[in-house]
Design goal:
The protein has helices at about 10-30, 45-60, 75-85, 105-110, 125-130, 140-150, 170-180, 200-205, 255-260, 275-290, and strands spanning about 5, 35-40, 65-70, 95, 160-165, 190-195, 210, 230-235, 235-240, 250, 265. It is of the alpha/beta class. Helix 7 (about 170-180) links the parallel strand 5 and strand 6 (about 190-195). Helix 1 runs parallel beside helix 10. The termini are far apart. The protein binds NADP nicotinamide-adenine-dinucleotide phosphate (NAP). NADP nicotinamide-adenine-dinucleotide phosphate binds near residues 215 and 234.
Length: about 290
């Protein structure tokens, strides 16, 4: 029997409904939740991501502003802008869209956003809180979204063997930090794999939960998956597709059709993790507004 599909679009809508209710309650108290997106340059993927986030924020009643800076903007100018946004009490969330041009140090920029406005969860204080199991910080949206997908589709993590392929700062590492906590819906045994790992299939075949977050199209094949396992596909890859008007299509890190025949549960891609990333960003923004007005 093919694996059950974990419908990220439907679960994200559920989260959005909860966020909209939270926004309505804040507005009833005279608080207008607000987020500011900053984009540097005209990277087409970044433009699309920011415009999608902006649209969803407005739909939920969150005020959303987008500031676009020229590709050549000096780092100091971006840091000065962030300082102004940090000081503005009407703004609850700040998101600096990555990737940034190469002359700008990404970690410096992330560390300049005030931790209590860091709805992306990339500030070192929030990263540290996540590792310590301190729930007062913000969690990075993509791994937090994957966690919610698992919780809301009944995937048992306690004592489970989890293999994560990819140790990136945005997905793999924080994903590991979330699932290894001594806490409900966590308590997993984690194997974090990367490009220097030996015999990756030997590890993934042991996994009850396999999370692919490396950015290599169709890397995870059916023979790498334990029968009945839950497979989560985080990757976003462009593959050439002459049939598409754009000349390419987006696909994940998992060979979906073949893996579906072996797995117990699986996320489609697109339509799995992607919508959850935006849902967690909106939830973090509503929470930032609530935290600013206890
Ligand atoms: P990243 O920082 O570039 O990390 C990629 C990781 O994959 C690295 O740890 C790298 O190993 C590992 N890797 C690369 N090739 C490998 C191979 N052949 N075998 C084993 N490991 C390999 O990427 P990221 O920012 O974490 O993102 C990961 C993927 O998730 C990307 O496709 C990205 O587009 C996608 N993503 C999706 C969403 C969403 O909303 N759906 C959000 C964020 C990211 P080394 O460390 O050894 O180099």
């Amino acid at each position: 029997m093919p694996a059950e599909i974990i419908d990220g679009t439907a679960i994200a809508e559920e989260v959005h409904r909860e966020t909209a209710a939270r926004v309505t309650a804040l507005k009833a108290r005279g608080i207008q939740p607000a987020v500011t997106f900053v984009r540097v340059g005209e990277d087409p993927a970044s433009r699309a991501y920011v415009s999608r986030k902006h649209k969803k924020a407005e739909e939920l009643g969150i005020r959303s502003d987008t500031i676009v800076l020229d590709e050549k903007t000096p780092e100091a100018e971006l840091l000065a802008l962030i300082a102004r946004l940090n000081a503005d009490p009407a703004i609850h969330g700040i998101l600096i869209q990555a990737p940034l041009p190469s002359h700008i140090r990404e970690q410096t920029v992330f560390a300049t956003v005030a931790p209590h406005k860091d709805v992306d969860g990339f500030h070192p204080v929030n990263v540290g809180k996540l590792l310590l199991g301190d729930d007062s910080g913000f969690r990075p949206c993509t791994p937090a979204g994957v966690h919610h997908l698992m919780i809301r589709s009944g995937v048992e993590t306690r004592g489970a063997e989890v293999a994560i392929v990819g140790r990136g700062n945005i997905v793999g590492k924080p994903m590991a930090a979330i699932l290894l906590q001594k806490a409900p819906h966590c308590d997993a045994t984690i194997t974090l794999l990367h490009s220097r790992s030996r015999d990756i299939p030997a590890h993934t075949r042991r996994a009850d939960i396999l999370i692919a977050a490396l950015g290599k199209a169709h890397f995870v094949t059916a023979d790498m998956v334990k029968p009945g396992a839950c497979v989560i596909d985080v990757g976003v890859n462009r593959v050439a597709d002459p049939a598409s008007p754009r000349g390419y299509r987006l696909t994940g890190d998992v060979d979906f059709e073949k893996v579906r025949a072996v797995a117990g549960k699986i996320t489609p891609n697109p339509g799995g993790v992607g919508p959850m990333t935006i849902a967690m960003l909106m939830a973090n923004t509503a929470r930032a507004a609530a935290m600013a007005h206890p």
